[in-house]
Amino acid sequence: MLEWKDHTWFEISEKINKIKAVILPVGSCEQHSLHLPLGMDSYSSYILSREIASKLSGDVLVLPPIWYGISPHHMHFKGTITLESSTLLSMVRDIARSLDKHGVRKLIIINGHGGNIPTLNLALREIKEKTKLKAILINPWELINDVIKDVLESEIWGHACEFETSVALVIIPDKVRKDKITKPNIKTPKMKYAALWSPIRVTTAWNTDEFTDTGSIGDPTKASVEKGEKLWQAMLERTLSVVKEFIES
């Protein structure tokens, strides 16, 4: 069994000293344009976590995922549910404290949503200072910048776009509304370096509807299964490599 939640307390007590780490998938419940489900980020982190665990022969277990994240920038689109940063921080910290008490020694957070990163970084610091756990945060798309550059046609990508739609066509094809895939009207900000897709940029507080009419940041009409396979396999292979190195360190 790959998942923590499917064990009894007694089975977990027997495995605690045998497993090398646990994985916590973290995602979001937020708009993903007209064609992808609200849970896209959670599906991607959860499915990736399960695939990683399946390749490690019982060395890791997958914790129940956190299906909500930090998404205030998407709240102008119906369906989005956002947490306060303090709420997500408390959830991750409390999960870590529980794991620490039970004797787990290593925690791998696999994150599917960019908006979670600042809060999860804070959580890592608290875990380091207040528990005996060793913890890492993996944002899988950050591991494959070279592959993304080679595979994508779009210069602009980031949300419900060519990248994310291609991945969805591979991991949750039955949940993609293919007939609703639409090229958005992308609005370029007037201020220099304020565009989200600019390689050199200043930081601003922004809302998604300031950049796009459909919720997509990037062009999902360029997505394909072939691109998705390349992107997903690259994320899987590189995430697996990082996890293996971490659990053996």
Please tell me how large the radius of gyration is.
18 Å
Biggest pleated-sheet summary = 4 strands, parallel
Strand arrangement across the biggest beta sheet? 2-1-3-4
Uncertain spans, ≥5 residues at pLDDT below 50? Answer: none
Number of helices: 7
Output the CATH homologous superfamily.
Creatininase
Helix content: 25-40%
**End-to-end span in angstroms?**
24 Å
Whole-number tally of structural domains: 1
Mean pLDDT: 95
**Overall geometry:** globular
Structural class by sheet pairing and helices: alpha/beta
Task: Summarize the helices and strands and which ones pair or pack.
Elements (H helix, E strand, L loop, with lengths): L8 H7 L5 E6 L13 H15 L5 E3 L22 H18 L3 E6 L5 H14 L3 E5 L6 H7 L10 H10 L53 H24 L1
Parallel strand pairs: 1-2, 1-3, 3-4
Helix pairs in contact: 3-4, 6-7
Short account of what is shown:
By secondary structure, this protein is an alpha/beta fold. The protein has seven helices and four strands. The model has no long low-confidence stretch (mean pLDDT 95).
Question: What are its keywords?
Answer:
249 residues, alpha/beta, 4-stranded parallel β-sheet, 4 strands
Q: Your description of this structure?
A:
The chain is an alpha/beta fold and 249 residues long. It has a single domain, classed as Rossmann fold, CATH 3.40.50.10310. Helices cover 38% and strands 8% of the residues. It is built from seven helices and four strands; from the N terminus they run αβαβαβαβααα. The chain has helices at 9-15, 40-54, 85-102, 117-130, 145-151, 162-171, 225-248, and strands spanning 21-26, 60-62, 106-111, 134-138. A four-stranded parallel beta sheet has the order 2-1-3-4, sandwiched between helices. The longest helix is centred in the last third of the chain and has 24 residues, at 225-248. It is globular and about 55 Å long.
